[in-house]
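Ticket #4471: structure export looks truncated?
Reporter: QA, pipeline team
Priority: medium

Steps to reproduce: submit the single chain below to the structure queue and open the exported record.
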Amino acid sequence: MISIVLPTYNRRHLIGETIQSVIDQSYSTWELIIIDDGSTDDSKAVVDKFNDDRIHFHAIDHCGILGKVRNAGMNYSKGDVIAFLDSDDLWLPHKLKFQLSLLKKYPQASFVFGHGEQFGTGAIPPPQLESLFVGNVFHPILLNERFVFYVPTIMFKREILHKTTAMNENLSSGGDIDFFLRMASVYEGIFSNEIVVKIRKHGQSHSQLLETAAYEEYLDMIKRFLWDGLLTPTQYGQIASKQNYKLGLLYLALNNRKKAVECFYRYTKIKPFNLKGWIRWIQAGLPSSLTRSL
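Actual output as written to the record:
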């Protein structure tokens, strides 16, 4: 049995197509647990039209915290394996069967994740990555960015919940990656370059403001990894410098120059001999009218 946890909020116009991509799976032993985070658009009417005993709908009061919604779904789950799906994305028909075969082929691994292709407004082609990796993915994905991370590709054995706590409900946007990396720090995993999901890009995707919040939470997360001994100071600096630089550029795009200055300053503290950090720090501190050509 595979338990599929699908959180949703006001996706009446999209969730039907997502549910159909589950029904169309070549592997049929699953339960779909839909957790509605207080929708006001009658999403339940769309779900009810499928009339499938494997589909279970649960409504909760709106919280806006994805980790809390996914935790509710995991609490309802009964399967030996748990998979995540988002209410605007689509699984390819072989997704469950293919990933389950990988978990059976490599029993030392406790989870599997894979590749996806984007579609819709702003979609970009999928990057070319190694075809298969089995082992510890924690450092390769954090330090070397060897793999992509798409939440709807994750599938893991229920047993990991014995050592890995549920999603951090204090994180507004970073609960997924925090959960995944904490899992990866304890258990071996599998990455496959096989395309198993279609990721929808559209007007309701994360705004730049939400993106800044995600970067801030990511920086806090890797700091916790440092405190927990999962990263060395050198490894932490390697990740934090890159994230601070990216976040500084994002704040510059939003014309939040004070925050941009803070990010580039943190970058220069880690990499004092890298000229680009100092240039960006100066740029962020000057009036925007003087820096448009930079």
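Status: closed, not a bug. The export was complete when the record was re-opened. Leaving a note from the reviewer for reference: The CA atoms of residues 75 and 238 lie 37 Å apart.
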